[in-house]
Amino acid sequence: MINFQYVRATDVADAVRQIAADPAAKFIAGGTNLIDLMKYDVERPMRLIDITRLPLKTVEETAEGGVRIGALVPNSDLAYHPLIEQRYPLLSSAILAGASQQLRNMASTGGNLLQRTRCFYFYDTATPCNKREPGSGCTAIKGINRINAILGTSENCIATHPSDMCVALAALEARVHVAGPAGERSIAFADFHRLPGDTPERDNNLQPNEIITAIELPARGFAKNYSYLKIRDRLSYAFALVSVAAALELDGGRIKEARLALGGVAHKPWRRSEAEAALRGQAGDEPALTKAADLLLRGAKGFEHNAFKIDLARRAIFRTLTQAARGTPQVQSSKKIR
Ligand SMILES: Cc1cc2nc3c(=O)[nH]c(=O)nc-3n(C[C@H](O)[C@H](O)[C@H](O)COP(=O)(O)OP(=O)(O)OC[C@H]3O[C@@H](n4cnc5c(N)ncnc54)[C@H](O)[C@@H]3O)c2cc1C
Ligand code: SF4
Description:
Elements (H helix, E strand, L loop, with lengths): L4 E4 L3 H10 L3 E4 L5 H6 L7 E4 L8 E3 L5 E4 L4 H5 L2 H6 L1 H8 L4 H6 L2 H6 L5 H4 L41 H7 L3 E6 L2 E6 H4 L18 E7 L7 E7 L10 E10 L2 E10 L9 H7 L6 H11 L11 H19 L12
Parallel strand pairs: 1-3, 2-3
Antiparallel strand pairs: 4-5, 5-8, 6-7, 6-8, 9-10, 10-11
């Protein structure tokens, strides 16, 4: 473990001032990812700026009929918040599919977006990794790549984004509110995370001197017809091999609006407008769901150990859409723990 300084930010403006003044500093929220990365010598911040006392812990309705979630709301509080359980159960379900109750108690909303990949080689400092050390190479492409991506990969990196919560936020078309030295701005969720391309070291479009202050959900919550299905090696405490968030709005037995996002398959939650468009106006029968799955997975490419994900994803999409259309969402095993 490296030596580092520890300081607390007193308010958002102070947090921005401190992070902008020191390129070797990092914010710390729940610490559930950052501390692990420091122990593995993957991240080496010289200064930790504790943001846990900032007033970013509320979940409030917005004037536009949506909900604004403070960046420091713990994942458990968010999953069990009445506004989220009732109006955005897809989000609640996705959060409860992740990690463990103890981790969800510590993990923050903002930190969940910024958690880093679980690619084995990213954590193994004895091996080349373009994300950890740009230009060094990608060991996963010819290595053990069972957990890696099948969509949106580049010759420089085939890592996935590991979050469950983000898959639901992508389907719900959330916005990310941030503050920096130039003021405040908001980023559409689809534009927040990046594909690896030639710069796999950059996971997202947040600037190093910016802080996430909130996530905003639009009014439409798809509370009747939704499902989050996570396929993993163990039933708890494991990251998704493939996960699917499906949200539908039905009208007279036909699909009026559809959202479909995949986790565990790409460097960001994976959506394609053509797949969602193909579902609109359909009755939700097998050919329509199969076509949507094919469109969402178009161009998928497997590597030596993860080609199985393509068929797994196709079946998972079909099942999740069927659950959503029938109004019988996947029940998460941790749902009962409060
Ligand atoms: C064993 C284990 C299993 C897990 N399983 C899952 C799982 O199945 N599904 C899943 O989705 N997640 C899982 N997680 C990940 C967990 O959800 C994340 O570690 C957590 O959400 C990160 O939040 P945090 O507040 O602890 O972030 P921290 O570790 O404090 O910070 C993470 C990063 O975000 C930055 N940061 C934090 N908050 C802000 C902010 N407001 N603005 C700007 N930067 C910020 C920090 O500087 C750091 O770079 C697992 C974690 C562990 C350890
Ligand atoms: S897939 Fe990405 S994170 Fe994994 S070894 Fe390759 S460059 Fe590193």
